[in-house]
Specification:
Elements: H1 2-43, H2 47-69, H3 72-99, H4 104-129, H5 143-165, E1 173-175, H6 179-191, H7 209-223, E2 228-230, H8 232-238, H9 241-288
Antiparallel strand pairs: 1-2
Helix pairs in contact: 2-3, 2-4, 3-4, 3-6, 4-5, 4-6, 5-7, 6-9
Amino acid sequence: MAKKRQGKGLGIKGARHLLRRERKAKGGRSSKTRQAIGNFIVKKKSIVPNIITMSNMTMGFFAIILASRGDAKSLALAGILVCIGSLFDAVDGAVARAMRVESSVGVQLDSLADGIAYGIAPAVLAYQAYLSRLPQSGLFIDSGMLIALIYPICAIYRLARFNITAASDDHIGFNGLPSPAAALLVSSIPALAAPDFMFLVKFTVQFPIEAFVPIYVLVGFLMVSRIDYSKTPALIYRKGKLFLVLTVIGAILLIAFFSMWSVFVLAAVYIITGFFLYFIKLFKKKRKHWPHPA
């Protein structure tokens, strides 16, 4: 009996020992897997800012599809998606610099994503919301399409010009209206007419087409102009992390309480302020060269 019990005890101990060895082997494999995944992320960590950049493009792509539906709610939602995409665009460069994975591929991805999100999407949205209502010519291409084409041409040209001059960039200002600001203004206008997306302020406005067309064309030409605009995100970042956090919180609160009105007003103020400051500087510069009376 004693031998049987001893043999039984050894059998239990052996089974336990075998179970522990199996667990260690499994743990070793899982730890190796986790290590391999970690090494891949470290080696390919540039994928993180690239995913953020592609998220901006994704928002622009979805905005185009929604805008093509043509109803007021879809048009408003398309404008909101363009604004959400701008948030991804605002942080992808900072994430790349923080992770030290800046590359020429990331620069090209950012430019191409901006072309879709800030060039094509706002133009499709503007056409479906306003420009399609212009008098039809009876031809395959109507006058609304031709006017709608002005904006994406200017936006794509501006992005190409920015890529060329990026090496000599002074990191202080932009030469020409930045495409994100132009897209935010154009895309927010259709959303101002949809009460479904209003939170605190339920005030809605349907812009007359007589007002929208000049705004649309002017914003397009401002992108390819030589008017200097300040780099607001860079200026905010230089103020310190606390100021940056407070700015982000303030922007979120503005959007939460005033919805797309806050986006429209901020974009309009930025565009108008840069426009007038440029001409004030130009006037002062010309005034210096005026002949002084004897």
